[in-house]
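Friendly challenge for the regulars: who can give me the structure tokens for this chain first? No prize, just bragging rights.
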Amino acid sequence: MQKNLLIGQSGGPTAAINATLAGVIQAGIDAEQIGTVYGAINGIKGVLNENFINLSEVFSCKDNIRLLKQTPSAYLGSCRYKLSKSTGDIENIVEILNKNNIGYFCYIGGNDSMDTVYKLKDACAQKGIKVMGVPKTIDNDLVGTDHCPGFGSAAKYIASTIAEITRDTQCYSIESVTIVEIMGRNAGWLTAASALARLTGTTAPDLIYLPEIPFDIDRFLTDVKEKIVERKNIVIAVSEGIKDTNGNYIADQSEIFKEDLFGHSQLGGVGKALETLVKDKYGIKVRSIELNTPQRCAAHISSKTDIEESFMIGAAAVKAALNGETGKMMCYKRVSDKPYKIDVTTMEIDSIANSEKKIPREYITKSGNDVTQELVDYIYPLIQGENEIMYKDGLPMHFIR
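First reply, four minutes later:
Bragging rights claimed.
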């Protein structure tokens, strides 16, 4: 007897999450054991509200799959909703899945989404429902997987943008400091990716500050002074999540500092705070730039490697569920660096949920204000390749629900 497949997307959008969705959809449509492929609108909230869309119908044309792969953000919509046992969420979800003959549920997302998979797995298992977590996060902070879908494209955008910013700053002869604020609450992978800008021949970023290393303001000001003497125009990459020696976010000084529903700090403003510090201390030209959402939605410069791997891991999630696996997350395993090669595996969600993968200390220089070549070598293959983007009227085409 055929069972239906339900897919949800959750958390922050990326340039690759729809490629993963496309992989799940295509594998679901192709599988004889699956009846209809449904999508939950706005993640787990859509499940609770029984707000589904028939994806088998929408994507009966393979051209739509191709277009979906190049569309940024979450086609099905997203949410940030923390499941609660006390409200009966889990029981309600299992009842809804049963009522709609859902035998397979794939949830695409980051840390908080894997917490959702973790909370659902036992109740779903009792009803024979296979639930699989499919990774997604530009932060690259999910444990168990070599890297996360979406990270490679974000890293490519950041490295390219840093290189372009550097060209802009170097055309003037006056002393200047440009501070680029990059996403990353507790893990600095995205900020570290800025180092790949050096592949274009520049020395920038001249300084890199990550949340893994306590941020010392006096040391920072000294670093700036020393670099200005060396190069006159410098570019600094700084994570939004840098903390002082007491573990307090530097961005806590910002008026917009607050927490989301999961208790995570919603950061922003650290670049402006550091801009004020440097300007007051040295009286030179300082500009701060917050890269903001383009880090996760710049699909026009996405990594071909990232998009292809994202599609592949989505399809693999369906195959794993059909083979009887459940309560697991799909993972990349790096088989070799030269040539770069990965396998797709699974890992128990218990070992992944509510954990964070941070940058190892050996990937950061002893001074704490730069990264090592080993880290550059790790990220390098993830940004390779350019996708053939379909355009209309001079702009990239998007598949919109």
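The CA atoms of residues 191 and 387 lie 24 Å apart. The domain at 3-149+299-355+384-396 is CATH 3.40.50.450 (Rossmann fold). Your move, everyone else.
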